[in-house]
Specification:
With 208 residues, the chain is α/β, with parallel strands linked by helices. It contains six helices and ten strands. The protein has a six-stranded parallel sheet with strand order 3-2-1-4-5-6, sandwiched between helices. The chain has a two-stranded parallel sheet with strand order 7-9. The chain has a two-stranded antiparallel ribbon with strand order 8-10.
Length: 208
């Protein structure tokens, strides 16, 4: 496959790029800041801004799938992911690209979960809404945009990521305990695995 990776220069994005290349895929790395990726014969770098619909549309031309490692955590504007989806979704639809795997935090709640959220999800959301509400809302809005699309989407909800632990993981609709920690390698592996799988189509499993 030829895969467009959004947020390719971030910590998670770098693991995704490396994992895709290691499995023999071609990667188009969408980068807004400095390129920190090592050169590779199957790696192409696309410099752009996910807030620019023209640039996003150009990058999506000719790819087989999209993996989004975008996050608002370190960005001044706190709507990076949801704003990006306003360009990504129509560009994918127009180009006939259907598969997208995205990521958000484990505090993000789907609309159908709000009535009776799992205790772990409720606790994590309440915790983060007190300190970084914009980040939670951004993740939820981007999930809602994908739910409303006709794409084959999966959103991986990830807990706090730290370190370079191994890539072992499990996916479940049951949220992890509030203080669960995962690794960038594990979340990247989960996202890459889902690219060629229909197990979690139109779903937002939690990774741990």
């Amino acid at each position: 496959m030829k895969v467009l990776v959004l947020g390719a220069s971030g910590r998670l994005g770098r693991h995704i790029v490396g994992g895709l290349l290691g499995r023999g895929h071609s990667v188009l790395a969408f980068i807004h800041s400095n390129n920190v990726l090592a050169s590779h014969s199957q790696l192409e770098v696309f410099r752009g801004d996910v807030q620019d619909g023209v640039g996003v549309g150009a990058a999506i031309q000719g790819v087989d799938g999209v993996v989004s490692a975008l996050s608002s955590a370190a960005a001044p504007p706190k709507r990076v992911t949801s704003n990006a989806m306003r360009h990504v979704i129509p560009a994918m639809t127009a180009s006939g690209v259907r598969r997208i795997v995205s990521v958000t935090g484990s505090a993000a709640c789907r609309d159908n979960e709000r009535r009776s959220p799992h205790p772990f999800l409720h606790a994590r959301r309440e915790q983060l809404m007190r300190v970084i509400p914009e980040l939670v809302i951004d993740g939820e809005e981007h999930m809602r945009a994908l739910e409303d699309s006709e794409l084959d989407w999966t959103v991986i909800r990830a807990p706090l990521m730290q370190g370079e632990f191994n890539g072992n993981y499990t996916l479940s609709l049951d949220p992890p305990p509030v203080h669960t920690i995962s690794s960038y390698a594990a979340v990247a592996a989960a996202m890459i695995d889902q690219l060629a799988s229909d197990e979690w189509f139109a779903a937002a499993p939690f990774v741990r």
